[in-house]
Structure formats: structure tokens, C-alpha cells
Amino acid sequence: MTAKLPSPVVLTGRHIRLEPLERRHLTDLWTAVGPDPEVWRWTMASVPGSEEEFGAILDTRIAETASGESVYFAAVDLADGRAVGVTGYHDYSARDESVEIGGTWYARSAWRTAVNTEAKLLLLRHAFEDLGMGRVFWKTDARNERSRAAVLRLGAQYEGTLRRHRLRPDGSWRDSCYFSMLADEWPAAESRLAERLARG
Questions:
Q1: What is the band of 42 on the pLDDT scale with cuts at 50, 70, 90?
Q2: Is residue 3, in this structure, part of any structural domain at all?
Q3: Does residue 95 form part of some domain?
Q4: What span, in angstroms and rounded, lies between the C-alpha atoms of 52 and 173?
Q5: What is the mean pLDDT of residues 74-98?
Q6: Domain harbouring 47, CATH code
Q7: For a Cys-Cys bond, which of 43, 72, 74, 200 suits 25, CB 3.0-4.6 Å?
Q8: How many domains does the chain have?
Q9: What range defines the domain where residue 20 resides?
Q10: How many C-beta neighbours within 10 Å does residue 77 have?
Q11: Which string of b and e fits 150-181 if b means at least 16 CB within 10 Å?
Q12: Global pTM?
């Protein structure tokens, strides 16, 4: 059976809501993130120096969602209703039943909280159970140890590293580490993620 392609939807958990990224999220996200070099360190975007530059980054992601190239979500903290980060689906194929989760960044205030864990739980559940994907994958900068460790904690498997894969904004070349999770691995991963969220 062929999988369904991702489309903008609202996914709600106990701590956060993932909703289609829109311009109305700009102020919350800029306030949360600002020109924090650590937030942008491992992304493929340069550090925005102003809210206007940040808005241009958001506009690109919103346009990619509108064109069907990607589907970006704002992660909204249910405690105060403010957006604290962005994540999304990319490089998807219904025929191959495959989708990437990526383009993710969060405000430092959301680091080491339930935000990323629940966002991944929501995205994985939607990908496997609603869209019928057989494989979900991630790619990270090989030097980004925090991100690599976070993906492995989800229950993903390391697949390999593409050398000299992408040009970074600073002109250096990035090696990309690939990780994946398959549909038959999802039930066990879901249980572990649910337990982690329950522990707080």
C-alpha cells in the first residue's frame, strides 16, 4: 500500500502543539530565539541579525510548505500559547514510504525539556500511523554531538555518514550523519518515548 504525503495538520500533545508555521508566529519565535548563535550553530542558515532577516527565513519555510516541498510546523508551548521552535517533514516519498524529520531548532529555554521529545513523538506517530510511512530518517551535522545523541535516544539507528555532503553558511563542508527508524521498530520506540514523557 502506498503511503500518504505529509500535509499541514495540527498535532497536539500534553505539553506542545505542532501547528502549520505561519507569519503570525514570527514575534514569538524571534523573542524566543533572537540572534542566538548556539541555536543557529548547526543549521544551514546564517545567524539572523534582525527580526526582518529572521522573517525572511520563516518566509522561505512557509513558501516551501505552500509548494509541497516540505511541511514546517511551529512548536507551541501549551503552558503559555507561545511558539518556541520549528520542525518539519522533508524529502518525502509516498512510493518509497519514506520521510525525513528535520529543519528543527528550539529556543534555549526549551532545551532538555519535554518539547523536543513530544514533538518527535507526535511527528513519528503521524508518519507511521496516519501516513503509513515505512521509514523515517534524520540527518545531522557530524559535529553536532547533541543532536546525534538526541536522535539515538529516540530509538533510531545510525546508517552512515555522507562526507562533504553540504556547504555550510561559513563556507566549510559538512559531513552528514544519517539515522533511521522503520515501521516495525516504532511500537517499541513509542513506548520508550511515552515513558520518558511520563517521567517528566
A1: confident
A2: no
A3: yes
A4: 28
A5: 97
A6: 3.40.630.30
A7: 74
A8: 1
A9: 11-199
A10: 21
A11: bbeebbbeeeeeeeeeeeeeeeeebebbbbbb
A12: 0.95
